[in-house]
Amino acid sequence: MGLAPDWRGKGLGRSLLNKALELAQQSGALDVVLAVDDVNLPAKRLYQQAGFVRYAQQHLLAWKGGGARDEALR
């Protein structure tokens, strides 16, 4: 989940999260797990306020294409 910068700080993230949790509960989900960047303090605060607790931490390495080789594969 993410919001464009112009839409942040208006309670929309909290509304989206609450709706997602409501739908998960209605569908019988036993657990809801999410991942967030450690430096994303506003998101971490939101999730903590919603009752999420950290249970694991890992380092993720990610690559994004975009070079000439990737263009040839399309």
Query: Which class do the helix and strand fractions yield?
Result: mainly alpha
Per CATH, the architecture is 3-Layer(aba) Sandwich
H/I helix tally: 3
Rounded mean pLDDT score: 89
- Number of spatially distinct domains: 1
Rounded to an integer in angstroms, the radius of gyration calculated over CA atoms is: 16 Å
Under CATH, the homologous superfamily reads: Gcn5-related N-acetyltransferase (GNAT)
- Which CATH class is shown? Alpha Beta
The percentage helix is 40-55%
Measured distance between first and last alpha carbons: 27 Å
Order of helices and strands: HHH
Enumerate the spans where pLDDT stays under 50 for 5 or more consecutive residues. none
Number of DSSP strand runs: 0
Major β-sheet profile: none
CATH topology: Aminopeptidase
Gross geometry? extended
Strand content: under 5%
Give descriptors for this structure.
74 residues, mainly alpha, Aminopeptidase, 0% strand
